[in-house]
Amino acid sequence: MINYFKSSCIRLVPSINRLHSHVTQNFREFSRFCGDQEPESWKSMEGLIRCQANNVPLSPISFLERSAMAYMNRTSLVYGSVKYTWSQTHERCVKLASALTQLGIARGDVVATLSPNVPAIYELHFAVPMAGAVLCTLNSRYDSTMVSVLLRHSEAKIIFVDYELLEIARGALDILANEDIKPPMIVLIPKYDCSSSTSLNLNTYEYENLLETGQYGFEIRRPKSEWDPISLNYTSGTTSRPKGVVYSHRGAYLNSLATVFLHGMGSMPTFLWTVPMFHCNGWCLTWGVAAQGGTNICLRKVSPKGIFDNIARHNVTHMAVAPTVLNMIVHSSVGDQKPLPHKVEVSTGGSPPPPQILQKMEELGFGVTHLYGLTETYGPGTYTPWIPEWDSLPLEDRSKLHARQGLQHLGLEKVDCRDPVSMKSVPADGKTMGEIMLRGNTVMSGYFKDLKATEEAFKGGWFHSGDLAVKHPDGCIEVKDRLKDIIISGGENICTVEVETVLYSHPAIYEAAVVGRPDDHWGQTPCAFVKLKEGFHVDAQEIIKFCRDNLPHYMAPRTVIFEDLPRTATGKIQKFILREKAAALGSLT
Amino acid sequence: MINYFKSSCIRLVPSINRLHSHVTQNFREFSRFCGDQEPESWKSMEGLIRCQANNVPLSPISFLERSAMAYMNRTSLVYGSVKYTWSQTHERCVKLASALTQLGIARGDVVATLSPNVPAIYELHFAVPMAGAVLCTLNSRYDSTMVSVLLRHSEAKIIFVDYELLEIARGALDILANEDIKPPMIVLIPKYDCSSSTSLNLNTYEYENLLETGQYGFEIRRPKSEWDPISLNYTSGTTSRPKGVVYSHRGAYLNSLATVFLHGMGSMPTFLWTVPMFHCNGWCLTWGVAAQGGTNICLRKVSPKGIFDNIARHNVTHMAVAPTVLNMIVHSSVGDQKPLPHKVEVSTGGSPPPPQILQKMEELGFGVTHLYGLTETYGPGTYTPWIPEWDSLPLEDRSKLHARQGLQHLGLEKVDCRDPVSMKSVPADGKTMGEIMLRGNTVMSGYFKDLKATEEAFKGGWFHSGDLAVKHPDGCIEVKDRLKDIIISGGENICTVEVETVLYSHPAIYEAAVVGRPDDHWGQTPCAFVKLKEGFHVDAQEIIKFCRDNLPHYMAPRTVIFEDLPRTATGKIQKFILREKAAALGSLT
């Protein structure tokens, strides 16, 4: 896995270097492709009609309605001692939708949440669309300021808040009040399994009480068009310019099915919620599990013990995790581990599982699938469909195959690596880098209130991911770096992912991230931030030497800083913070 | 299956009885729901764009393109010693599409086939849509007259004909020539594995030669809209009014995925083609197997020995069969049977598997799923999702559950039993009958060149199946009778009116009526009740021969009974009395 990084033959298409400035420039030559893609050619055959009988807007709402019949008495959701069937979940969601409309929620209104993976947030994934509204699940680790910014930007009318996060939400509302902005109503999601003791003020409702005001006979508000928005997902943008990614009912329907296929989920899977539902609507598996009449095992907090306990107790078949959780599982104490009842399929996204993690996961009885995607692609967009013949390959070869981001899943039309200026595909030689571009029905509708950013993202009729990758001869893509993370040192491009992979292979290193440190002579030099495993001691010189032994010298870090890495709520390392720290160090030469 | 007709507890909603006249009346109060169902409400959120990056017409063509990469070197199709990989199948289909355009096939043109399940008909399921054209797979049991009628109606420009059916096709072309209609070109599908010795005339091409004229670099003609027609499937309409059911790319895409889900097909299944691909495009599994990168095992003729041999040789995982084939398997000689390598999932449609058949199939190692659908619903539309807890029920109870037509699959929005006049749902009491009505994206676009029939079929915004059923308390439907008097024999629909028309054309026959006679092997066989003109004398054999000379053989009566026909006061023949008489005769085979 490591040796190929020694290869100096990774070529960049010429215009990548010009791109840093390009992407931030105003986009002038943009041509709108925005014409309705549905000419009436279906009328060309005489005798045909398009009507309610044969044209129903695609929507994940249909999954719940069907499962309420097909899997009526099967368990839909478990959370501690809370347990519902699919017919109960359906009833609760309809009543909640009814209650929302009674509170004045109109078609297209935004309803926000601030909550970990408790039953309420699952139910809101159906109830809010059933009220014709748009679900905006805020990251539960945001502070009051960030929450206030996103409430203002989204114009949310209601926010559902977990009892542990009530003070954060109230802080956000205070900020809005100070700005003379009408704050949203708060609906408190109390601690399950005990009567609420939280004091509620006038503008605050309690979840179960609100739900009970709704009518099961309520006629839900179906989307008028499958292009209607179903959710609004804020990515980690800056506070001054939030990026609110809009999903449509159509895209959510198609990505849910594609994600179910990708996970190899048969009928009635049992899914353990270790990935936050606020993240790309749980990679669309909130809706996907309903499509297959599965059982959702909700978890407030993720811990290795909790994972093993829940797998054993509920016969979990599938889970999806951030790379940090893979790390947690693999490094968990033997006392926390339990034998698995059967092979458990785990998907992971964000970064490829390193060989030693993969091997350990397999030893524990997990099957690992590596996904790639962005908030803008409804979460999962690509993976490497696993060929049975590969099972017998040596670990190193399997790791290389797992490390690739692969091909579009069944719901996406195409993934490609292209020169972002000429828009030409790069050769499929495993060497030439291009920007990952994606096209298909599971690409976002756009950035809410930011047409310019939307136009930039869709330039040339492809979604521009901002990730750099090579394309292998079999068409599979492999990420090399974020466009903005790439380091240019002495005119050479350094893929930080490659340097990090070498760092991770060092036995003492628990986690690592590399950014560019400004340099008067070289432009930039690589700077590594490293956290060591407990009980290990190595110094910077040893780490630098290790990298020089395993990489072209110009790629080896010149600086090593030992500290905990800052991460986002979804487990992504916040490189912009590290870049600021590296910049503060000043030039090395 | 027969006994339930005797049950006295089945209630009919009052208006069912009025329906026979109703459905044949001109439909006056029809309101077109035909307005574009896509208001621009997606624009209500500022900043969104619909363009090539996020809006690609749904089409099964995408399945092949993806599998050509994801499953590149995996076997796509096997037929005797013929074997292709997915990348080869993709290449062959693109070349064939290219060759079709070189022959002058334009967007929207119809390309017909007359063939059993050989590789060519599989390839044409992709090649024809890739040329922008519409695939019309004719029943390979049709005679020259029927083929000529459908070629005239469909205006097919080319017909691909299996070498064994060449004379039927040439006969059809002669009929067209006599009517001064320009006949389609013939492309001969020769016997595989041997050089063709059939003499070709000027207007006839040979399949492989034609394919070789195509270019792999050809830019395929993608649908301009997902509502573009992809195929035209003739049901058993009368020769005077053929019913050509039009499928769209959108519906085909969605039904393919739903059918894959319904069959529980994981990645890379091996599918044995025992259901004709000419029947609803092989229940959309032609496209569905491509979606999952599976292997298609083609069979020219279906026999128990062939089924067992192929299962063992190719590790078949899934198959789909007409009820007669279930019968064949169960009654096959022990010498023809082979132990299965694993459980083989078999789906069957048309009529529910009787308990003894179900039991025997399970003993042999098959898992059976019972589907319901019509040509108008792209084949499979409903089934009973099987709950694991049911496995432990006694055979009789399981048979009852298997016998039900169940619920809509994942691609269909809703199945319901309704009063066809008031359009009200019947109570879910397992007793009150209503007409099965379906709604969703996997309902046909309409009947080609027959707007009136389309409007009638979609009256009230639901597709009217013409089948009568009850709805059980859990929402599952169960078919009780056919609204019309269709006979199902060996999986084929026989319209009694057509047979009666031929009978009436016999010089000795005064009046005639045809009903189904229950049959252990065929399900039903046509039974004719005939009253001769005074002074005429013919016997049953002569009448049967007359019908066989004027109809496809399977449509000809197997039984002829001479007697006066029972009529109502207003002169209508009472078919239910004749059905009882035919039932009393018992099985013919």
Automatic annotation (TrEMBL), chains A, B:
Record domain AMP-binding enzyme C-terminal: where: 498-572
MF terms in GO: 2-methylbutanoate-CoA ligase activity; ATP binding; medium-chain fatty acid-CoA ligase activity; propionate-CoA ligase activity
SUPFAM superfamilies: Acetyl-CoA synthetase-like (SSF56801)
Domain AMP-dependent synthetase/ligase: residue ranges: 64-448
Entry keywords, A to Z: ATP-binding, Ligase, Nucleotide-binding
A GO term from the CC aspect: cytosol
Pfam families the UniProt entry points to: AMP-binding, AMP-binding_C
Cellular compartments annotated: Cytoplasm, Cytosol
PROSITE patterns: AMP_BINDING (PS00455)
Transmembrane segments: none
NCBIfam families according to UniProt: PRK08162.1
Family per similarity comment: Belongs to the ATP-dependent AMP-binding enzyme family.
Protein name as it appears in the record: AMP-binding domain-containing protein/DUF4009 domain-containing protein
Organism expressing this protein natively: Cephalotus follicularis
